[in-house]
Amino acid sequence: MIQFADAIIQYQLRQLAIGHFELFIIPSSRFAQVGQERIVNALRSELGAATIEVRLVDAIVPDPSSKLRAFVSQLAVDQSVR
What are the tens digits of pLDDT across the range 32-44? Predict the structure, then answer.
């Protein structure tokens, strides 16, 4: 994601299930120039054939410890890779 630093103010990637992600982005004024598709394609090159849903947001809520995490796994214990 560092290659898109000028287009993204902040982001968070959430893994909802194996192969299913949500990408929350606070876009900068240059986001439209870079394009959502380029960002998703770059992420897919790292994640493989995953479903990636993009959400453009105004803010990303910190976790209960007040940390802003770039990656959050929401996998249930029984969904984890054994």
Answer: 998 899 999 999 9
The CATH T-level fold of domain 2-79 is GMP Synthetase; Chain A, domain 3 (3.30.300)
Separation of alpha carbons 39 and 30, rounded Å: 13
Please give the order of strands across the beta sheet that includes 71-73.
51-56, 20-27, 8-17, 71-73
pTM of the model: 0.84
User: Distance (Å, rounded) from C-alpha 78 to C-alpha 18?
Assistant: 11
Domain boundary assignment for the chain: 2-79
